[in-house]
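Please, structure for the following, as tokens.
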Amino acid sequence: MKRMLLIAWQVIRQPSVHFSLGALVIGGFVAGIIFWGGFNTALEATNTEEFCISCHEMKDNVYEEMKTTIHFTNRSGVRATCPDCHVPHNWTDKIARKMQASKEVWGKIFGTISTREKFLSERKRLAEHEWARLKANDSLECRNCHNFDYMDFTVQSARAAQMHSTSLADGQKTCIDCHKGIAHQLPDMANVEGW
């Protein structure tokens, strides 16, 4: 064992053309830490409400609508921001969502929704895409804040208590099935399944 450690130490110390293998490994490790730190810093910088509403398409359309909802102002003072509802909290899910969202940058670059009129003409398609995403992940972003285990069904309306304690709790439905338009205005709901 001692002999193997000595051989390994000699290989690490042995110089390459310019640097020892040990220096290259340590340098690579430090560079990896710097890259990882920079990557996570950039990831978190793009995961803020300020970043989301930095383009007028979001600020002038969906953000203005959200200001009138309970997710923006309420009796408890707890406010949801854009990433709370549109970006999962778990790191791997967050990376996957960020990759999906990179396609949305094309809309900004090519002016797909650069005016209110363009936004309204695309609203239903955009909403259906987001509803499908939430349906597919069982409304993960909703469940980051809302938990059935802590709901007091006795203070909910009879219909909400019944739905929360049966259909949603046993996985037959997910939050977005009933709560479309909870934070943004609904598009024309003609021909939308379940409406």
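The chain has a mean pLDDT of 86. DSSP finds eleven helices and no strands in the chain.
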